């Protein structure tokens, strides 16, 4: 089993290091490679979450329908003057809404799972590399900065770019349509 994971690591390393050797300029290579790695993390995370959402769509739709029905019934109870039923139904709707909220929060966090693997790989390759930086940041980071200082802003940039690219990317066109449909009122 150890050889299997080592083989995966070596093949992944060969693939990833390619992006760090595209030019004759070391700093350009590092920036290109780190941006490529961060964008790959975004893509893998987005694919993972979109598959999880598709797999659990029926469950999420049931929760949404249950919240809407409980809200509707609580309004009917309120209009009928039945405060006890109103409070009970409103509490049930709030409980289901909470489950739905935390399910969506878990999906949102799910896009981040590739990052520790990317950081681990970066650490194995660039742990001893520090980049000097200009003032005023050099006052805080007098010994320079490492790969994390570059990866995190690159990841944020990749997320922003992906947001605008998603509607035009082959697999993600369908995902975008699903997200747009979910944002419509009454869904």
Shape estimate: elongated
Counting helices, strands and paired strands, the structural category is mainly alpha
Distance between the termini: 46 Å
Strand fraction: under 5%
> Count of helices?
8
| Overall mean confidence score, pLDDT | 87
By DSSP, the count of extended strands is 0
SSE ordering: HHHHHHHH
Low-confidence stretches: none
Gyration radius, rounded: 23 Å
Largest sheet: none
> What is the helix content?
over 70%
Summarize the structure.
This protein has helices at 2-18, 26-55, 57-79, 83-110, 114-126, 137-140, 147-165, 170-183.
Which features would summarize this protein structure in a list?
mainly alpha, 8 helices, 187 residues
Describe the protein in words.
It is a single chain. The chain has 187 residues and is an all-alpha fold. It has eight helices and no strands. Helix 2 crosses helix 7 (147-165) and helix 3 runs antiparallel to helix 4. The protein starts with a helix and ends with a helix.
């Amino acid at each position: 089993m150890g050889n299997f994971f080592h083989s995966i690591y070596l093949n992944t390393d060969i693939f990833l290091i390619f992006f760090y050797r595209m030019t004759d300029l070391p700093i350009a290579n590092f920036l290109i490679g780190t941006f490529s790695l961060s964008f790959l993390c975004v893509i893998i995370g987005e694919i993972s979450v979109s598959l999880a959402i598709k797999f659990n769509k029926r469950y999420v739709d049931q929760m949404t329908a249950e919240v809407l029905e409980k809200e509707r019934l609580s309004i009917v109870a309120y209009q009928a003057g039945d405060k006890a039923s109103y409070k009970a139904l409103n509490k049930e709707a709030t409980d289901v809404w909470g489950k739905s909220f935390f399910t969506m929060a878990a999906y949102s966090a799910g896009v981040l799972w590739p990052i520790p693997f990317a950081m681990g790989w970066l650490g194995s390759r660039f742990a001893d590399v520090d980049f000097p930086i200009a003032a005023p940041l050099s006052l805080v980071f007098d010994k320079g900065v490492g790969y994390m200082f570059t990866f995190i802003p690159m990841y944020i940039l990749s997320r922003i770019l992906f947001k605008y690219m998603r509607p035009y990317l082959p697999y993600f066109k369908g995902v975008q349509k699903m997200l747009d449909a979910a944002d419509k009122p009454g869904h």
